[in-house]
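Good morning C.,

I know you're traveling, so I'll keep this short. The sequence:
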Amino acid sequence: MKELVTLRGRRMCSLLGSRKILPLHCSICLSVLCLITGVGAREHRASPTVGSSGVIASAQSSLASGNPTEAIQVLSTHLQAHPKDTAARLLLGEAFTARRELGQAEQQYQEILKYAPDNYLALAGLGEIYDRAGDPAKAEAILAHAAKVSHGVPKVQTAWAVVLARLHRYSEASHALSEVPPPKSPEKRLPFHRLKASIAAGLGDPAGAAAEMENALALSPNQAGLQMATAAAETEAKHWERAAKLAGPLFARTHDPALGLMLLEAQLGSGDEIRHTLEQLRTLTLSQEQEVVFRQRLAEVLIAHERFSESADELKRAVELDPSRAEVRFNLALSQFKSGGLDDALATAESMQTTADSAELEDLIGDIQEARGDELSAVRSYQAAIALAPNEEKYRLSLAFDLIRHKSFEPARVVLTQAQESHSNSWRIQVALGMVEYFSGSAEEATKTLLNGAGMAPDPELALRYVGDVQMDESGPPNPAALTRLCEYGDAHSKSGMLQFYCAALLFRRDYLSNDRSHTEEILRRLNTATEKLPNEASPHCQLGKAYRWIERWQDALRESETCARMEPNSPDAHYRLAQIYQHLGQQHRSEQEMKLYQTASARLADENARRDETIKTFLYSIQGQAQDRK
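The tokens, ready to paste straight into the viewer:
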């Protein structure tokens, strides 16, 4: 499956002229200054020099009135006579910072640290300067030391967390704030909650981020920028109704494109009618360059909610505005393909071949031709993609999958074997080869190859499921290596009910064929676990029915077999086994009923070719879904 070539995440930072569509981490203020301003002389633990309290008060008054120059004059004169007055020098550093004379401010904090190296306020001031100078790594080291020597002073911890968040060290930032209460003053509490929201977003906790933004909004409910940031957070958390409630009035008032996109996404998420919002978005007045970008973003939102037809309309307009943008035309072809407009998709894609041909484009054309039923043209396009990008695994897989789809197993084997030469560590190629062996009738070779693939995969469960399917399809004793691997994985991953089922069912078949009842309790335990993990699957109940019947626990066999037949009414085997159990229990009438159901189900039973077709379809669906996360 192809992806939009311009899409880089649903909440990406992008520009529409002077208007910005920002994700949570882009819109939240992460400034040390906005959180620790004032962590200077006013909160210093040391007492000022005797006689300096008036100087401090005067300088503080000047700073409060927005006159740092006056504060600098007063404090500089005082410090000539009292150079070790820490409170005054801290305040002087703050005054220089307010006047953006960072070099002078740094000198004041460094002077303090000469005779008081663990003065956490001077360290915090230095951290602020380095952060403002664009060196967050240096600021973090200073603030980490300040946090340590301050023994957890909240404002220092908070300043440290700000820089950690800027460095994307969100887990450490969260830990730094774990014991920090929200500031008492609303003007400090608001950026504190926005900082926590940013950290939560960085940790992949959109609901937590939204909750913190709501806390911030409660402190200033009429601030439009805060409303917008909160709407973005609620959108990211998929709290669609709340997001729409916030974004709707803002968009109606401002006609801001970013807010309109948020509103549209919220309405799409909640299933609301989008026609009116879409019409408003399409009539916004933008420059040509802005409109091209905006139409792309609008299409991305629509595509994310599988509204491919509407997205094609937006991309078609973007192409009309700027035909030279190959990525927009590619996205148009993809949207047309997804919406079922195969002829339009092919025309759009083929129009790019002379000026912007690429392996991705040829791969898409192959998909379009396949959907149109033109197998030969599809194969040619997949081959063209390979020729353009011979070292890319995904294009060889596309060709192999297409050949498998049409049961051309020998050509598929050749393609995959060639791919294996340049991608010897690819688990997908190994799994595809294994399934080709299976479809070709070689279960033994299929099992061996699939186990190799499972050994290469970062998450082997999908490959092991194929191993289980292959082994379940056999009638003889299971492959010992496969049985061991399935059971080991099932034991190590308690949530994997299907692997637990494969293990138990194959153990049962092994022991049934050898008439070995020594592992009965283990088999029953595993099968019962599988029924708990797979409440909607008939197979564990069916296997339990067989196992209980084998050891002559007839009432248990009856219960599980009835469940099996109820959950899988088209299974001839289920009705035949139930008929035998009823006959043993003396319920002749019910046995005859089940035999009639068995005969009806047998008449409907798909032949071997139809079963294989379904298996091929299922395999291609699952493996191509996995291919979206290619290494």
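Safe travels,
E.
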